[in-house]
Amino acid sequence: MEQYLYFGSLGLHERQYQIANFIGLALQPAHDREIQHNFADPLPFGDGSIAKIQAQDVLEHVAFEKVPAILDEIYRVLRPGGIFRLSVPDYRSPVLKRRSIYDARGKVIGDLMMGATSYLDQTTGDARVRFSEDGDAHLWFPRYELITHLVLKSEIRKAAIHFYQAFLDDHSYLCEPVPENEMFVQRAAPHDRRAGGAPVSIVADFVK
Q1: CATH 3.40.50.150 residue spans of the chain
Q2: Tens digits of per-residue pLDDT, 184-199?
Q3: pLDDT at 127
Q4: 117: alpha, beta or left, given left = phi > 0 and alpha = psi -120 to 50?
Q5: How many Å apart are CA 71 and CA 96, to the nearest integer?
């Protein structure tokens, strides 16, 4: 049986858990369909050995500068013709914009729903944020150009890339149906209607 990789905990409630091929990559494995893995470490699989990999709402929990190395490892273990599906929250979506904290230049610096708390820097007079240290906080705030920047810094740029859903700027967006291919994306239209049919997540496939 081919192995598929699911970055993060493979919860019993996930559709991917119903597909026997999927193995979860978890810091603290909870069942026999998960293996222990720290995202900062190389993947414990051979070159070109994995047919499908999914990272759903997980890379935003990793420090921004560490993401290209993770993408390198994903590209390394994908077999020719293999698919990596990426989905991350889209911080141009109105759903996420409403719950975010901004600096004086209008840049998102924290998500109040995902581990950020605000405080005032008494020295500078600027709003600042602290992040929870339990692993649940969003440490950076994906937008289309940030994802393309990370891709271009990684070997995964060599893949055939297709974006299904994303805000391209503050006004225009892509919102194509995402083929399931055993890699269901929970926070994507039409399943997630919080943005009235507009994207909530950036969703893209990378085919080696």
Answers
A1: 4-90+137-207
A2: 999 999 999 999 999 9
A3: 85
A4: beta
A5: 24
**15-58 tens-digit pLDDT:** 999 999 999 999 999 999 999 999 989 999 999 999 999 999 99
CATH architecture designation of domain 4-90+137-207 = 3-Layer(aba) Sandwich (3.40)
Q: How many CA atoms lie within 13 A of 143 on its CB side?
A: 14
Cα–Cα distance, 25 to 7 (Å, whole number):
5
Structure tokens at 132: 């929870």
Ramachandran assignment for 115, one of left (phi > 0), alpha (psi -120 to 50 degrees), beta (any other): left
48 class by beta-carbon count within 10 Å (0-12 exposed, 13-18 middle, 19+ buried): middle
**What's the pLDDT score for residue 115?**
95
